[in-house]
Amino acid sequence: MSLLTVRDLTVTAGSRELVHGVSFGLEPGERLGLVGESGSGKSLTAMATMGLLPPGLSAGGSVLLDGQEVIGRRDRELVPLRGATAAVIFQDPRAALDPLMKLGDQLAAPIRRRARREGRRLSSGDLRAAQIHWLDRVSINDPPRILSAWPHEVSGGQRQRVAIAMALACAPKLLIADEPTTALDVSTQAEVLTLLDDLVRDEGLALLFISHDLPVVSRISDQVIVMEKGRAVEKGSATQIFTAPRHAYTQGLVRAARRLEAALHPGEGAR
Ligand SMILES: Nc1ncnc2c1ncn2[C@@H]1O[C@H](COP(=O)(O)OP(=O)(O)OP(=O)(O)O)[C@@H](O)[C@H]1O
Ligand SMILES: [Mg+2]
């Protein structure tokens, strides 16, 4: 059974349609990238698949997440699906973190939820071991210090690693990453991307990866959907999209990526 089947998804704000009939599917363990310029509808598409649209927006069409219809369901009915089936990492890790709660307590929440779901009793020693395990998995140095720190006491890269640890600790089948590295400096961006790539492989997760950056998306995804003005204008393998784009809009994205590459690495010639 497909993990995610999106059919003719629309998102509307009153009478304004923001996402126009997007369809795609994702099998367990598959990686799909959504790419497109700012405002093209990537985040709304991803949030609609989790039933997480902001107030005032509504979704139409059909989204089957692990066999369950998401569109039209009440928020309360979707709570079990979030975390257990799909977890999200946002561009700004502060969105996932409570500024008034120590990082260790925040990481404890998904660990406890998972244990409850699996009917396991969790001693304080088990909890501590799981917290350290997940911080190790996201390559955080000195886990004990991070566990007793407040969000503002750690770096942006460390905050994003904790947010990733919280998403993974739920043991989801699907990870949705919405511009997870955009807010980080360039070297941290590359580290976090490599980390995500490794974790998704090791944990056997499916990935819906969103970015405006085509080279980043094609590095981490197998299949890519290009969005423009709320429409999916091109779909293909990451290699095809990057090396032989068919749609004029995608060709523009590829040219822009190449120009940026040339500006960053002058003298290396066109690749
Ligand atoms: N809550 C909202 N109410 C009304 N319009 C919205 C709302 N959220 C987003 N939009 C509009 O919907 C369109 C798609 O927004 P979306 O956030 O999906 O874009 P995006 O592709 O994720 O862009 P970015 O790369 O900047 O994150 C934009 O035109 C945006 O202004
Ligand atoms: Mg967005």
Average pLDDT metric = 92
Query: Do you know the CATH architecture of the largest domain?
Result: 3-Layer(aba) Sandwich
Largest β sheet strand count, sense and barrel closure: 6 strands, mixed
Low-confidence stretches: none
* Bound molecule types: adenosine-5'-triphosphate, magnesium ion
How far apart are the first and last residues' alpha carbons, in Å? 39 Å
Strand order of the largest sheet: 6-7-8-3-9-10
- What portion of the residues fall into strands of 2 or more residues? 15-25%
Number of domains: 2
Which CATH C-level class of the largest domain is it? Answer: Alpha Beta
Gross morphology: globular
Describe this structure in words.
The protein contains eleven helices and ten strands. α4 (103-117) crosses α5, α4 runs parallel beside α7 (156-169) and α7 runs parallel beside α8 (186-203). It has helices at 42-49, 75-78, 81-84, 103-117, 124-137, 143-147, 156-169, 186-203, 214-220, 238-243, 248-264, and strands at residues 4-13, 16-26, 31-35, 57-65, 68-69, 86-89, 174-178, 206-211, 223-228, 231-237. The protein has two domains: 1-85 and 173-271, P-loop containing nucleotide triphosphate hydrolases (Rossmann fold, 3-Layer(aba) Sandwich); 96-171, no CATH class. With 271 residues, it is an alpha/beta fold. The mean pLDDT is 92. The strands form two sheets. Strands 6-7-8-3-9-10 form a six-stranded mixed sheet, with helices on both faces. 38% of the residues are buried. The structure holds adenosine-5'-triphosphate and magnesium ion. Residues 42-43, 178 line the site of magnesium ion.
